[in-house]
Amino acid sequence: MTSPIRRVGLVAKPGLTEASALLGELGAWLDSRGIEPCFEAATAQLARAPLPGRTCEAADLGRDEQLIIVLGGDGTLLGTAGRLATGGYDVPVVAVNFGSLGFLTEVRVTEVFETLAQVLAGTAHEERRMMLESIVRRADGVQVRRISLNDVVITKGALSRMIDLVASADGQLIARFKADGLIVASPTGSTAYNLSAGGPIVHPGVDALVLTPIAPHTLTNRPVVLPAATALEIVVSGEAARSSLEETYVTFDGQIGDILGPDDSVRIHRAPYALRLLKPDSHAYFQVLRQKLRWAER
To answer: Which residue of 42, 125, 189, 199 pairs with 151 in a disulfide if CB–CB is 3.0 to 4.6 A?
Structure first.
């Protein structure tokens, strides 16, 4: 930590009543150390008793806080990471697992106070996780900006037709993909949808982008690992899209999405922000792979 912690933001998964007691305990723990807790408005409503500190809106968390505590699963962390990056808030996060997998939310409930003590002492391990910035460009010139931690996924709708996508890197044609879709993943996102689609596991310390086709028509279309500085562009083939009754979608971390029309494009590059994850110094990446994903087990 580069500055003393005076205020901590807390956000929980919506409706996570299992975190009710812990919210009160965290508030009291922080307050007793002269640190003001600020509970996200919906999170504060989960508590069973009055909480110390104040409440604030989710979009404002990170503006005045020096630390954010997330209670929930990976989806809750993804949403928080996107809001922090969108606001330009360079604030570290302690992610506490209340989910079923918790690959990103590594801190167990039983480790919360030990981890926070390490954070205050400056001995907690910090990882900076690369994020993706995307610009959706419509054929009519309208642009939409999105930031994601895990991935950007372009996929077809409900009907079982393939979509036609043209992918380029730094202006150079990569390939024209006829597939169920394409995944552009960060190293963090390499163990998410990318992994299920047959893409590689990329260590989060590697600066890279992964381009993985989903069920490609051409079996030689294999995942490609690209330098993190690459500017990717994926265009919906206008001719193919106009001849299909099916819509094409782009989703960001599975949190938000947009419909893509003929000749619309998505430009993806490394975001100028990184997620700062704090965790106990005893947690190691390959240990998490083995525990969470049963990686390398027989």
So the answer is: 189
